[in-house]
Amino acid sequence: MLTKMKSFLQEAKQELHKVNWPSKEETIKMTMVVIFISLAVSIYLGALDLVFAKLLKLLTEY
Questions:
Q1: How far apart are CA 10 and CA 4, in angstroms?
Q2: φ and ψ at 27, to 5 degrees?
Q3: Rounded Cα distance, 5 and 11, in Å
Q4: b/e per residue, 5-37, with b = 16+ CB within 10 A?
Q5: Which pTM was predicted?
Q6: Where are the domains positioned within the chain?
Q7: Residue 29 half-sphere exposure, CB side, CA atoms within 13 Å?
Q8: Are 30 and 22 in contact (CB under 8 A)?
Q9: What does the alpha-carbon distance between residue 47 and residue 62 come to, in Å, rounded to a whole number?
């Protein structure tokens, strides 16, 4: 059991060395893209929520 675990950890470490990690600049760019898209979607959904809330209020007043 212990030898299997040791073997697994060694193989996992070898695989991690094969990974093509992004550079710092790529990571920053992709993070900015995610933040921008998240903000855009939140603004869009907030606007939809506002419109539907006003419509519902209009419909329930009468």
A1: 10
A2: -65, -45
A3: 10
A4: eeeeeeeeeeeeeeeeeeeeeeeeeeeeeeeee
A5: 0.66
A6: 22-62
A7: 5
A8: yes
A9: 24
Question: Token digits for 26?
Answer: 């790529």
Residue 20's identity, in one-letter code, is N
Provide the residue count of the chain.
62
pLDDT tens for each residue of 4-55: 999 999 999 999 999 999 999 999 999 999 999 999 999 999 999 999 999 9
Q: How confident is the model at residue 61 (pLDDT cuts 50, 70, 90)?
A: confident
Candidates 33, 35, 54; CA nearest to 43 is: 35
